[in-house]
Design brief:
Radius of gyration: 20 Å
CATH topology of the largest domain: Dihydrodipicolinate Reductase, domain 2
Distance between the termini: 39 Å
Strand content: 15-25%
Oligomer: single chain
Helix content: 40-55%
Low-confidence stretches: 270-277
Shape: globular
Number of helices: 17
Largest sheet: 9 strands, mixed
Length: 372
C-alpha cells in the first residue's frame, strides 16, 4: 500500500505546480496550507482532494497530518524564514521529507544539523529536490561514474536558455530567496572538507557544446554535501549559478557587501520590505519559452578535464513541479534508499533519477555510445 502524500504550501506558486504534476501522475495528495479558504478551493479545483490547515506558526497543525508512513513535500519558502517547521515535523515523525528550496544555508542546516536526528528516528530528508539542485547532482553523478577513481574535482554550472530575463523568469518566492541568499554565507567542498565562504565569491566560465562561453558565480548546494559521500576520490566540488550571465561580476560585487558590518542586516530588512515572498510566477506560456542547461566537468589530480556531461531540459519551475511529484510518488510507492539527510542520487539511485529526469525532458546532450 502506498504511503500518503502531504503537500505543505500547496496554494503557493511552486505548490500548485507540484499539485498539478501529482494529479497528472495519478496521485491524490492531501493539500495543506495556512489559508483555509484557499486550500479548500484548490482541493475542489483538483477533483475533490482532501485539504487541511497547517501553519508554520502553529507546528501542531502540521504534526497532526504527519506520521512515520507519510511522504511530506514542503514548498513553504523562503526556507530560511519558514522552512524549519516542516523538517522538524518530519524528523520527529520518522517520515520521508522532500522540499523545493534552493537556499544554501538551509540546505547545509538540513545536512549538518538534522542528519543525526533523522537517522535516529528513521526519517529521510531530501532537501533541494527541484531545479535547485537535482540537475547538477545528476550531471555530476553521470560524469563521476564514468571517471571512477580518476576523479579529483567536479565543477557544475546552471544556466538559463531561451528568452526572458532572470527577473521576468522568477517567482516572488525565488526573488525573496535570492535576496536573502546573496547576503548569507555560502560554502563549497575544498581539500576534502566543507568550507564556508561568501556567496558569489568565485566566477567561472563554461564552454558549451553550442560554442558559447557562459559565466556563473559560486553558490553552495547539495552537490557539495552529498557527492563526496558517493565518490570518495573527490577533493573539490564547485557549483556555479549562471542566471545572471555577463552580470555575474556585478553579483559578485554585491555579495562582498555582506562582509561589511551592518550592511547585510540592512539589506535583509530592505529585501523583506520590497520582496514579498510567494507572489506568483511565470505562467505556462512564459515557461515554455525558456529552458535549462547544466554542465558538469570532472578533473583529475593534474587539473585536466577527463569527463564532461551536458544536460538540457525544460524551464526550471516546470522541472521542479514534475521532479517533486515524481520523487513523492516514488517514495510513496517504492520507498527511498536510506535514512538521514540525503542527496538526490543517494535517495533514489543514479539510474532511477536519470530515467525520471529524461521522462520530464532533462536529457544528456550527445551521450556516449554504449558498447554492445
Amino acid at each position: 500500500m502506498a504511503r500518503p502524500i502531504v503537500l505543505f504550501g500547496a496554494t503557493g506558486y511552486t505548490g500548485r505546480l507540484v499539485a498539478d504534476a501529482l494529479i497528472k501522475r495519478g496521485g491524490r495528495p492531501l493539500l495543506a496550507a495556512r489559508n483555509e479558504a484557499a486550500v479548500k478551493q484548490l482541493a475542489e479545483e483538483l477533483g475533490g482532494l482532501d485539504a487541511a490547515v497547517a501553519d508554520v506558526g502553529r507546528p501542531e497543525t502540521l504534526r497532526a497530518l504527519v506520521d512515520e508512513y507519510t511522504v511530506l513535500v514542503s514548498t513553504v519558502g523562503p526556507f530560511l524564514r519558514w522552512g524549519s517547521t516542516a523538517v522538524d515535523v518530519a524528523v520527529d515523525a520518522g517520515a520521508v521529507y522532500l522540499d523545493s528550496t534552493g537556499e544554501p544555508p538551509f540546505i547545509r542546516e538540513v545536512f549538518e544539523q538534522r542528519d543525526a536526528a533523522a537517522r535516529s528516528s528513521g526519517a529521510t530528508l531530501v532537501t533541494a529536490f527541484g531545479y535547485d539542485f537535482v540537475p547538477g547532482n545528476l550531471a555530476a553523478g553521470l560524469a563521476l561514474e564514468r571517471a571512477g577513481d580518476r576523479a579529483a574535482k567536479v565543477s557544475v554550472g546552471y544556466f538559463l536558455t531561451g528568452g526572458g530575463s532572470p527577473k521576468e523568469a522568477m517567482s516572488g518566492g525565488t526573488a525573496s530567496s535570492v535576496a536573502g541568499v546573496m547576503m548569507a554565507p555560502a560554502f563549497h567542498f575544498h581539500n576534502g572538507r566543507v568550507v564556508t565562504e561568501r556567496s558569489a565569491k568565485r566566477v567561472r566560465s563554461f564552454n558549451t557544446s553550442g560554442g558559447k562561453q557562459l559565466q556563473g558565480t559560486s553558490i553552495g548546494c547539495s552537490e557539495h554535501l552529498s557527492l563526496p559521500r558517493i565518490y570518495p576520490s573527490l577533493r573539490e566540488v564547485d557549483v556555479y549559478l549562471g542566471w545572471f550571465g555577463p552580470a555575474s561580476r556585478v553579483m559578485q560585487g554585491v555579495s562582498v557587501l555582506a562582509e561589511v558590518p551592518g550592511v547585510a542586516k540592512g539589506a535583509e530588512r530592505l529585501a523583506e520590505r520590497f520582496v514579498k515572498g510567494s507572489t506568483g510566477g511565470p505562467g505556462p506560456e512564459a515557461r515554455a519559452k525558456s529552458g535549462s542547461l547544466i554542465v558538469a566537468e570532472v578533473e583529475d589530480t593534474g587539473g585536466s578535464v577527463i569527463e564532461r556531461v551536458e544536460l538540457r531540459g525544460p524551464n526550471g519551475y516546470t522541472f521542479t513541479g514534475e521532479i517533486l511529484a515524481w520523487g513523492a510518488l516514488h517514495a510513496a510507492e517504492e520507498g527511498v534508499e536510506g535514512t538521514g539527510a540525503l542527496g538526490p542520487v543517494e535517495a533514489f539511485g543514479l539510474r532511477a533519477l536519470e530515467a525520471a529526469c529524461a521522462e520530464i525532458g532533462l536529457k544528456e546532450e550527445n551521450p556516449p555510445v554504449q558498447a554492445q
